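Take one record.
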Amino acid sequence: MKKIICFLSGMLLFSCSQHKYLKTAERVDPARYAGTWYEIARFENRFEKGLKCVTATYTLRDDGRITVFNRGIDEVTGAEKSVKGIAKIPDKNFPGRLKVSFFRPFYGNYYIIKLDEDYRYALVGEPGRKYLWILGREKTMDEEIYAKLLKTAEENGFDPSLLVKIDQDCEL
């Protein structure tokens, strides 16, 4: 019985921690990352539920932080919804690991997992694997690139079947 309890305890510990570490992009130039990104796909979440035409715009600030402006259109009402926040890079040794807050003093993880060398697309998530986004500089994404990002997501412990493609066929 003791062996079974030890085995089950070990399995529980392993299953809870096996995907906590999440590798991020080693080189991120905030100036090149700044600008508008289109949300190509996301894990559905409560704060974006029912939104289409979602964009995220990042603007560098004089204090070294980044202003984050997210907006989208409610699929039912057609109303624009937006939220403004702030991001920071807490450790310059890990420039792909940002902290973002829309309701200070609370910050969440924003990990740039994969970033195109020309800053055309990005895969963003967080260590708990609850949130995931595929972002692009254009409203549409080449299917080959999209498939490559799905594979990277899966290799990093995310379930790509949970991704929902976002309708970008509208103007903000």
Observations:
- Confidence is low (pLDDT under 50) at residues 1-18.
- The longest strand covers residues 51-60.
- Residues 2-17 form the longest helix (16 residues).
- Strands lie at 35-43, 51-60, 66-74, 80-88, 97-103, 106-115, 121-125, 132-136, 163-165.
